[in-house]
Design a protein that fits this description.
Radius of gyration: 24 Å
Shape: globular
Largest sheet: 5 strands, parallel
Strand content: 25-35%
Length: 472
């Protein structure tokens, strides 16, 4: 239901319009249809679901145009003043003004605002590796972030003989799968010694790596890229690592993302990586201030998230986080009324016939953050063996050995068990202990699960192991 406020109409400037910017604009205009909302976006499209790029380039998308869930016209119909293909050159946060350039005409225009919403998103990590800049300019090294990147990958890399993907996170993992399925020789390069090392622990990643090997993927793990060497013939690139050289037609950078917040450097409080710090109402902090500024809000990949497994603010760029934070911007843009509940960074991916999902901390993630944690792994068929078919599910549960609080879990199966991660997300949000998770009411029906559901079973195993440890 549309609501209006008795307060005077405000002017809002939204800088950046992908997931967070789109939802923030919708939410603000729905609640305050009389407000003036300027939306600035340097591209000619918005709301592109970049998490579907690998599916698109692999031929699993019915129509790529349906990967946009909104449009400039749709936001304009709501009342937004759209400034597409417009680059914001500078923002004076304290002075409440900005300067933007129309990329088509070159004209620069100044704007003032009452409220600023920072939804500038993220940018691909581009390390200072020799030859990388030249490769990106030449086109033999590609990025994987937006609509234009997806088109280039589909039009060129998917037709190549060999491609190297740098970065074994979700983006790299999915791209390599699609290349191998299409008959393109794929090489997966990462400085860590496991694929998906930041998403899953070894009991699952070992099975993923075995699937890659079965599909003729070359795993170049534990190797840092030291150079991109373009061939003099104008075709192909050699990816040089600390352990070897790989000659391919194209290389794709998938080494992660950083906040795109250069405009606000020195004006807003940030983490060392540039992520804007926010309070529980998504309000940012002016530089040097300890109280949040009511007129500056941020959401999405440009800012921090409250990571519930640790209770600290972290940088975890996910579309789900961006959307939920943006809706809070809409709720709190006039006054703080709705608190951010935080995130468990719940996510999932399908690789070949393997369904993988996770929520919260892995054991490796806990160690990287200096968090004391224990974990246990259970492998059991997801449903009874009297059924005509069944298949094993691998479950890893992570918890705090002192408080026994659930910190995270991971699941992998050839059957789709991804929703189990949502159950764990709720358990973490509710601060369940392993004892409570072990005793929670989970249904049994032979088509779907065992008499003791695998979620409860792995929790029971964790309780037994922790009890034995405490008694020792």
């Amino acid at each position: 239901m549309t609501t209006t406020s008795s307060a005077p109409s405000k002017t809002v400037a939204i800088v950046g319009c992908t997931h967070a910017g789109t939802f923030a604009a919708q939410a603000i205009l729905t609640a305050h249809p009389d407000w003036t909302v300027h939306v600035f976006e340097r591209n000619d499209t918005l709301s592109f679901l970049s998490c579907g790029i690998a599916l698109w380039v692999g031929g699993h998308v019915s129509d790529p145009n349906r990967m946009f869930y909104s449009s400039p016209a749709a936001l304009a119909d709501l009342g937004a003043r759209m400034h597409m293909q417009t680059d914001v050159l500078s923002v004076d946060v304290a002075g409440k003004s900005l300067v933007a350039r129309d990329l088509n005409t070159g004209e620069e225009t100044g704007y003032t605002f009452d409220k600023l919403v920072v939804t500038t998103g993220s940018k691909p990590v581009v390390p200072p590796i020799p030859g990388l800049a030249e490769g990106l300019e030449d086109g033999r090294v590609m990025l994987c972030k937006n609509w234009d990147h997806g088109k280039v990958i589909k039009d060129h890399a998917m037709k190549a003989k060999a491609v190297a993907v740098i970065g074994a996170g979700y983006i790299g993992a999915e791209l390599v799968e699609q290349f191998s399925e299409a008959g393109v020789h794929a090489i997966l390069v990462d400085g860590l010694d496991r694929a998906l090392a930041k998403n899953f622990d070894a009991p699952i990643t070992e099975q993923v790596e075995a699937a890659y090997t079965e599909h003729s993927v070359t795993l170049a793990l534990g190797q840092m890229v030291t150079e991109f060497r373009l061939s003099e013939s104008g075709a192909g690139v050699t990816v040089v690592t600390t352990a070897g050289e790989y000659e391919v037609d194209y290389a794709i950078m998938g080494a992660g993302f950083l906040p795109r917040t250069d405009l606000f450097e020195g004006q807003l409080e940030m983490l060392p990586n540039g992520a804007i710090k926010t309070d529980e109402y998504m309000r940012a902090f002016l530089a040097g201030q300890t109280e949040a500024c009511a007129d500056v809000l941020a959401a999405g990949d440009s800012c921090t998230v409250l990571y519930n497994p640790t209770g600290t603010y972290d940088y975890i760029p996910l579309a789900t986080n961006a959307v939920r934070q943006a809706l809070l911007v809409g709720a709190n843009v006039e006054e703080p009324v709705q608190k951010y509940m935080g995130t468990q960074a719940t996510s999932a991916v399908q690789l070949y016939d393997l369904s993988l999902a996770a929520s919260g901390l892995t054991q490796a993630g806990a160690e990287a953050r200096g968090v004391t944690a224990r974990s246990t792994t259970l492998v059991q068929d997801y449903r009874p063996d009297f059924m005509l078919t069944t298949t094993p599910v691998t479950c890893t549960l992570t918890w705090d050995p002192q408080t026994r609080r659930v910190l995270g879990a991971q699941f992998m199966c050839r059957h789709d068990v991804a929703e189990a991660a949502n159950a764990i997300s709720i358990a973490i949000q509710a601060r369940f202990t392993i004892d409570q998770l072990a005793g929670v009411d989970l249904f049994f029906q032979p088509n779907f699960c065992q008499p003791v559901n695998f979620i409860g079973a792995v929790a029971m195993q964790a309780v037994a192991e922790q009890n034995a440890s405490d008694a020792a």
